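Q: What residues go here?
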């Protein structure tokens, strides 16, 4: 499995040189507010996705190398350089601050979090990774239907265990072809659940839709709005849904790394040379 081996940033905050050698599985970046955690993750995302709006105008050099030595990506004053396309798929989740692609599309009572959840669950076509598109594969590729349905059952079982304390069970409303939570006699639509529940679902469905392929998953403060029990389980949940993912997480919460992942912690101060 190809992973990010090293991140090097010259000119961080116009003066620092950062070098970070990463683990293949889990990496937890901690530091005080303003220490550069979000900037580091956003720089890596900008480089891998070739969307350099975040990097433009910054006097910064960003270099990412990969574990199988198939390529290296670099962004500096002369722009993007790479000796091969980025040899890893990646996703970037920052659910507490989701950017809106079209502000006109948002409804009066919707939030950016609502729009992101709808995108991950319901978007059809355009090669979009969504739960609805994934379910359609069972129809379009009948030979995969059994495997697809088995994975969906596994996903729903994991979600039900996480939501067990509130008595909610996830369910497909066949009449409206939509997802909701069964609670007693009521079916609660996704736009009526709490902010923390929406955020957790965005993370879970994003990882599920990787279909266990090798991925680099960048997450910036995923603990926002999640209660401590979910924070403690988050890394394990992600690793169960996609054991082939490399996690790079920026966090303030000890609960994220306190349950067996303490040896995966990096402090921003220790990475600066």
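A:
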């Amino acid at each position: 499995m190809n992973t990010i081996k090293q991140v090097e940033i010259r000119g961080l905050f116009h003066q620092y040189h950062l070098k970070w050698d990463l683990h293949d599985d889990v990496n937890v970046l901690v530091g005080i507010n303003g220490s550069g955690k979000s900037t580091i993750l956003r720089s890596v995302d900008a480089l891998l996705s070739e969307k350099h709006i975040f990097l433009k105008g910054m006097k910064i050099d960003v270099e990412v190398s990969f574990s199988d030595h198939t390529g290296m990506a670099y962004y500096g004053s002369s722009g993007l350089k790479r000796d091969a396309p980025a040899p890893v798929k990646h996703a970037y989740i920052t659910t507490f601050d989701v950017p809106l692609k079209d502000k006109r599309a948002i409804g009066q009572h919707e939030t950016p979090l609502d729009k992101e959840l709808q995108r991950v669950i319901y978007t059809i076509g355009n090669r979009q990774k969504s739960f609805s598109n994934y379910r359609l594969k069972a129809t379009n590729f009948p030979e995969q239907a059994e495997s697809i349905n088995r994975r969906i059952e596994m996903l729903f079982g994991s979600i039900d265990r996480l939501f067990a304390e509130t008595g909610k069970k996830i369910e497909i409303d066949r009449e409206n072809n939509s997802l909701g939570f069964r609670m007693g006699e009521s079916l609660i639509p996704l736009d009526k659940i709490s902010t923390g529940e929406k955020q957790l679902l965005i993370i879970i469905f994003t990882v599920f839709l990787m279909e266990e392929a090798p991925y680099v998953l960048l997450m910036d403060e995923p603990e926002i709005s999640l209660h401590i029990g979910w924070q403690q389980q988050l890394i394990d949940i992600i690793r169960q849904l996609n054991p082939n993912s490399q996690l790079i997480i920026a966090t303030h919460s000890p609960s994220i790394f306190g349950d067996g992942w303490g040896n995966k912690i990096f402090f921003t101060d220790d990475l600066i040379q």
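A: Context that may help when evaluating the design: The mean pLDDT is 86. The longest strand covers residues 4-12.
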